[in-house]
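Can you give me the bound-state structure? Components:
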Amino acid sequence: DAGVTQSPTHLIKTRGQQVTLRCSPKSGHDTVSWYQQALGQGPQFIFQYYEEEERQRGNFPDRFSGHQFPNYSSELNVNALLLGDSALYLCASILTGLNNNEQFFGPGTRLTVL
Amino acid sequence: GENVEQHPSTLSVQEGDSAVIKCTYSDSASNYFPWYKQELGKRPQLIIDIRSNVGEKKDQRIAVTLNKTAKHFSLHITETQPEDSAVYFCAAGGNEKLTFGTGTRLTIIP
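Here's the bound-state model for the whole set.
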């Protein structure tokens, strides 16, 4: 959805480095989910942030951490990068409390780990 | 946790024919079933969704059916057009988490 923004668009890192990705949800949305999409695969849920807290987490190691700010924007941090972390990282914007469950994806950040 | 299986992985249909993609899920607590279309290099875009209190939903050429008892749901695209060519993903879950299928690459043959 055009209202969800992510930065940067592309990023190249080397093994062992750390990376921070950013997401701003749609105006009025208060919840952000992060997904990892490897080439040729479906998105995999990393975690979700609501009210500045991690509400639920997928099957990802502690190297993946996040944060949500009072303005609802969010960051995804990945430490000690591995080659296998190369993927498209998507954030999804949700309005919790409105019982429609719709998740709108941002354009993604393509991370390449060399 | 939830497990979603999606079939077929690739599908080619003649322009104007119908396409059907099927998914099964494992967690009976899932109550939301969206379908996303993803074109090469772009974000997944929500094309239609269905909730567990509804058996069928239609939006122009696209329809989705849900069988809660059997835990499966399907996407139907009628009168296919070249611009329908893309990868389609089903997903199952709720407000907090979606589990995605592995995708179906749909090719419309002119």
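A couple of observations. Chain B touches chain A at residues 1, 6, 31-32, 34, 36, 42-46, 49, 51, 89, 91, 93-103 (CB under 8 Å). Chain B has a mean pLDDT of 95.
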